[in-house]
């Protein structure tokens, strides 16, 4: 691998030192500052979390105090209870729940009047003891004239039962339907209408009437879900089991109704059975259901509110949340904190237990990971911007160093290739001169004809050397910008034909086809004839070198509007697309040329490019591998010259 030149090695090392060392130091300091900033931010986030947690506890404590004071007010309740909660009022002999349909069952059934068994002694004796069903039916119908609803309901219930036993099932169904209008009396501990509807479902099941049974059971389930009857827990569970059998699936009652019913039952047990164990006021979360119950007692009355977890989150959790923003607050039953919250508690979550706060819940206060204190956010942005600038500086410096190194290495390689190529180009004519000089010195008696041949060979070698030296000197002047062009009006067609004729004469004896085709008319441009001839000659020389096994060259001159084009086409090895963009760079030679050891210095096309640019023209190449290349020079046409139609072809073969 080529080494860096001394003229560039020093600046590159200096640039590396100037850029890399301070950049590395700045990056190190920036990383340390970011680490310290993160540590300070974590500390500040912990402080924010602690403050938010304290605000949440205070907010919930204030809300609970307001709720307990409200419960102690004799005018309570003043408003309807929010969704997910019930209001409960206990007195010595009654329980009132608002809304009543929000609970599935009651601590005890409804205290409805029920007729004594003595009123139906004759009916029961005839039906059960004597098994005289007609007599029992007649006596039951006789009680139908009673004005006592309890007696009348009991008589209808027995009448329907006797009709079932007699096989009059349609009449029994009608009697049960008549019984459903009795809503203020009880039969066997259940409201009469509930007993009637339950027994109708059982009779429909017995009759195998599934559509009627499904309709009757669905209506019964709907009324139970709406809290139509006040039943105790045993009766409720018994009715649910019957509905499950009749409907073939578990009954779908509204959620939380059973949990709210258990809360009412717990308060009733504490109030009636163990009154001394219940403080005058308080709040508790029931372990079994997770419901929260708040109560206050005075003047022989107990007022309470029971709410589901969603109610607690809405009524108390939302206020705690608003007072603790941007933290998130969750109220959970004691001991219900998730394990992942415990793992993250040190960093993002504060868990305040009921024993710590005196509240009935565990408070989980979480600070989102995306929340950053304002002062750290702005400072973090500045630090990141500074680090980004340093990284850009390092990347830019590295890019400059690598690019400079690559350019210098490429230039060094190209110069080395150029020196090698020029050396080969010079070696051939110099060797020829040395050989013929030696022959002339060895034999002084050479025949005049033989001596003339030697002198001609020396002249051709000398002219080749002169052309090489002139080309190098011309290229040097062009590179330095010292080449001046003597512009004059000339006919490109005549100039190119002259150059082609001279080139053809020089290559006489070689198997070469060289054709020149020019349009008739004016091809007048302003150009330096010597420079333009040199550029055409270089293109011809290139075409011959790279013609390969098909030494066939076409030169065309044509006018296109205000441009005159000179095209030199060969049918040789061609140029790959990847190399076409750099063939006009100095010292550049294609891979195929190097591989096939085609002679050249790598400055011919660069010289043509300089000359054409100096004439305000353009140079282009179109090439296909193994199919040849076409180089086209376009020059501005002289405006005084007008194109004329017609075409003249000049061609020759050697």
What can you tell me about this protein's structure?
The protein is α+β, with helices and mostly antiparallel strands. Among the domains are: 111-252, Serine Threonine Protein Phosphatase 5, Tetratricopeptide repeat (Alpha Horseshoe), CATH 1.25.40; 484-653, Histidine kinase-like ATPase, C-terminal domain (Heat Shock Protein 90, 2-Layer Sandwich). Helix content is 55%, strand content 16%. The chain is built from 19 helices and 18 strands. It has helices spanning 6-72, 121-129, 133-142, 149-166, 169-179, 192-206, 210-225, 233-247, 257-273, 309-324, 339-343, 354-357, 374-442, 448-480, 492-506, 529-545, 577-580, 591-595, 604-614, and strands at 85-90, 95-98, 186-187, 190-191, 281-285, 292-298, 301-307, 328-332, 349-352, 362-366, 488-491, 513-519, 524-527, 552-560, 563-570, 618-624, 628-636, 647-653. The strands form 5 sheets. The chain has a 6-stranded mixed sheet. Strands 2-1-7-6-5 form a 5-stranded antiparallel sheet, with helices on both faces. A hairpin with a 2-residue loop joins strand 6 and strand 7 (301-307). Helix 4 runs antiparallel to helix 5 (169-179), helix 15 (492-506) packs across helix 16 (529-545) and helix 16 packs antiparallel against helix 19. The longest helix is centred in the middle third of the chain and has 69 residues, at 374-442. The relative contact order is 0.09. Residues 338-346 and 642-654 have low confidence and may be disordered.
């Amino acid at each position: 691998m080529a080494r860096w030149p001394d003229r560039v090695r020093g600046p590159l090392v200096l640039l590396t030192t100037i850029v890399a060392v301070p950049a590395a130091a700045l990056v190190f300091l920036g990383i340390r500052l970011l680490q310290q900033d993160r540590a300070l931010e974590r500390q500040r986030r912990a402080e924010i979390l602690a403050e938010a947690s304290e605000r949440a506890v205070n907010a919930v404590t204030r809300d609970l105090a307001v709720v307990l004071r409200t419960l102690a007010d004799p005018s309570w309740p003043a408003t309807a209870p929010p969704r997910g909660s019930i209001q409960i009022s206990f007195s010595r002999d009654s329980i009132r729940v608002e809304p009543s349909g929000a609970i599935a069952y009651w601590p005890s059934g409804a205290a409805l009047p029920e007729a004594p068994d003595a009123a139906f002694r004759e009916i029961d004796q005839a039906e059960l003891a004597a098994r005289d069903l007609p007599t029992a039916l007649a006596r039951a119908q006789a009680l139908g004239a009673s004005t006592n609803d309890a007696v009348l309901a009991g008589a209808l219930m027995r009448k329907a039962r006797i009709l079932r036993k007699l096989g009059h099932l349609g009449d029994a169904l009608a009697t049960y339907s008549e019984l459903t209008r009795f809503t203020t009396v009880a039969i066997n501990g259940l409201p009469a209408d509930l007993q009637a509807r339950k027994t109708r479902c059982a009779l429909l099941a017995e009759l195998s009437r599934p559509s009627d049974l499904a309709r009757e059971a669905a209506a019964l389930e709907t009324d139970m879900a709406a809290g139509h009857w006040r039943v105790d827990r045993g009766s409720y569970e018994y009715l649910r089991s019957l509905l499950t059998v009749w409907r073939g699936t578990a009954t779908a009652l509204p959620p939380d109704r059973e949990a709210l019913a258990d809360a009412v039952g717990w308060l009733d047990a504490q109030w009636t059975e163990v009154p001394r164990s219940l403080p005058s006021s308080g709040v508790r979360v029931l372990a079994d259901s997770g419901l929260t119950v708040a109560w206050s007692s005075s003047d022989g009355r107990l007022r309470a509110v029971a709410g589901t977890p969603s109610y607690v989150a809405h009524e108390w959790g939302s206020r705690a949340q608003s007072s603790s923003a941007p933290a998130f607050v969750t109220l959970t039953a004691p001991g219900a904190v998730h394990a992942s919250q415990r793992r993250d508690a040190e960093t993002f979550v504060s868990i305040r237990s009921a024993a710590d706060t005196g509240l009935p819940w565990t408070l989980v206060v979480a600070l989102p990971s995306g929340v950053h204190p304002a002062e750290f956010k702005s400072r973090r942005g500045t630090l990141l911007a500074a680090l980004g600038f340093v990284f850009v500086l390092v990347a830019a410096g590295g890019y400059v160093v690598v690019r400079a190194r690559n350019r210098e290495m490429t230039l060094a390689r190209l110069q080395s290739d150029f020196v090698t190529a020029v050396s080969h180009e010079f070696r051939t004519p110099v060797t020829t001169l040395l050989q013929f000089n030696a022959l002339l010195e060895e034999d002084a008696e050479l025949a005049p004809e033989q001596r003339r041949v030697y002198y001609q060979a020396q002249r051709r070698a000398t002219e080749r050397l002169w052309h090489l030296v002139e080309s190098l000197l011309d290229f040097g002047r062009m590179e330095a910008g010292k080449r001046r062009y003597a512009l004059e009006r000339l006919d490109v067609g005549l100039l190119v034909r002259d150059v082609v004729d001279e080139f053809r004469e020089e290559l006489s004896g070689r198997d070469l086809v060289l054709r020149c085709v020019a349009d008739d008319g004016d091809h007048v441009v302003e150009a330096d004839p010597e420079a333009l001839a040199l550029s055409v000659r270089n293109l011809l020389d290139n075409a011959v070198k790279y013609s390969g096994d098909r030494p066939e060259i076409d030169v065309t001159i044509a006018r296109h509007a205000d441009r005159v084009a000179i095209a030199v086409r060969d049918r040789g090895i061609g140029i790959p697309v990847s190399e076409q963009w750099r063939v006009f760079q100095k010292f550049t030679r294609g891979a195929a040329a190097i591989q096939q050891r085609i002679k050249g210095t790598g400055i011919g096309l660069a010289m043509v490019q300089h000359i054409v640019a100096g004439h305000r023209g353009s140079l282009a190449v179109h090439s296909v591998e193994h199919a040849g290349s076409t180089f086209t020079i376009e020059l501005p046409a002289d405006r005084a010259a007008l194109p004329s139609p017609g075409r003249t072809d000049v061609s020759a073969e050697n």
